[in-house]
Amino acid sequence: MNEAIHSGFHQDELEYQYNPRVSVPEYPELAKIRAAQARKVRESAKSWLNIAYGASPRERLDIYAAARPAGPVLIYVHGGYWRSGSKEDNCNFVPTFTERGATVALIEYDLCPNVTVTDIVRQTRSAIAWTYKNILRYGGDPAKLFVSGHSAGGHLTAMALAHDWGHDGLPHDLIKGAVATSGVYDLEMVMKISVQEQVRMTAEVAAKNNPLLHPPRVKCPLIVAVGAAESSALPDAGTFTRAGRGEGDLQPRGGGRNERLRAGRVACDLLRAGRGRHQFLWRRRVRRCRGHRPVRLARLDRCQEVALPAGTRL
User: Fold this and answer.
1) In this model, does residue 241 exceed pLDDT 60?
2) With a threshold of 0.70, does the pTM exceed it?
């Protein structure tokens, strides 16, 4: 009998719903395009590369200089289901921010199965702390620190918000705003799909690093972005949205999760990007190169939410 085993999905449906490499067949082509764009940025942009924030060979970060000093800082966490990806292949978006006055830091971390997701969460938090303490010497303002991540990076962004930064002797409001894009928040399902071979998730690790069980401690504006054309499971997996908002492209989702966040006074919205799939940020950059109009971004230094104008095609 083919019974539903997770979130109402049968075993043969889970891989499609929760594995973007299956649901987005053009993934290999998109990855090559993104990597080629990233190489051009890495070769041409003013930067400081492979700066150590820890002892592991992969505990490194790249910092890209803003067009003008003393502006906001964006820390970006790449995705890859915690088992693949690199900062080198994910810097294609950097000029969008540096040209507007933001310093950008891309962090690297160790990958499963060499480490656990718990280790990666710790490394991400260490990289953020290092950036706060040191970014002034690279022209960024530590008082204007923002964090964003895609896919597994979206999960790591959520776990950065769940951290008690005061326990580390840092400001509780160290992070001034965050954007989690197409995040993987349902960690229990990882044990039921093929990525488990490398991720090696356990029930203990899933519970310790579940953003639904560990909501944000940092009280800052938060955008959770998903592509409207993503698989039906991903937009609902751990959506953090404020109840009662239903204006334009921002739609309330998530049921009981809204209640938990509202109780914690977390102001959060879900941005559903029309026609966007799991790699919709890559597609935006690809189409920009083909002559499409670039997406406008809210000014980070005013701590406003990032939004796409109505009618924007991704």
Assistant:
1) no
2) yes
